[in-house]
Amino acid sequence: MKKLSRVEKKMRRRRFLFRLLLLMALIVTMFVLALNTDFFIIDNIKVLGSNKTSKDIIISASSITIGENQFKISTSDGEKNIDKIPYVKEVKIKRKFPKGIIIEIIERKELFQIKELSSFALIDIDGYILDIVSTENHILPLINGYDIGDNKVGDNIFSEEENKGIIDFILEGNNLSLLGKMKSIDLVDTNNVNFLLNESIIVAFGTLDDVKYKLNLLNEILKDIEKKQISCKMILMNKGDNPIIVLNDSEEG
Q: What integer is the mean pLDDT of 179-191?
């Protein structure tokens, strides 16, 4: 292979620099044109996956408006703003060239409700307050005795270490699909927790010690009751190591 002379090397370097500058100038020109042409002006914004929050609120929070240039908006800033909406768990903003914007939402879902004087706080699996309403939701489990304090919509009630037993109870109950079977839960005295199942079975759960073990044990008991079609009115888990099943009067007779 022929070795290049110093002059040839210098000329090759100049040609490379010239091409690089030409490419950069072309990119800058295209960018300037893109910023000033009507071809990339946004004329539609679609919101996907939002049921609890109106699309107008989400679009407003994004700060993206019809008539803006695609290249002048910040999708990351829009995502941060939308993420502050209580019902929004995840958000992704995509440009759909040349003129569209797509906002994809994954929403949080109410898991249970907490009674607060004359109102009800709707909470999701992560402990976020999604809404505070004046009427009870008869589908969601109702928790009495859990003080949400000064927390407001959008705040997280699972951040307090002192409520670890309650949090474990809620999370493990959900993992076992037991929480959805609970109509109401009394947490006024955490040493004497009681709850009512949808089948009108009262469970005297006792303390919140060994929550995971006790809930798994309760789950097995309920499976056995269902399998054997036992008419049960109470399950006592606060009278020692062995739960006591109290039958309905008709079966006891």
A: 95
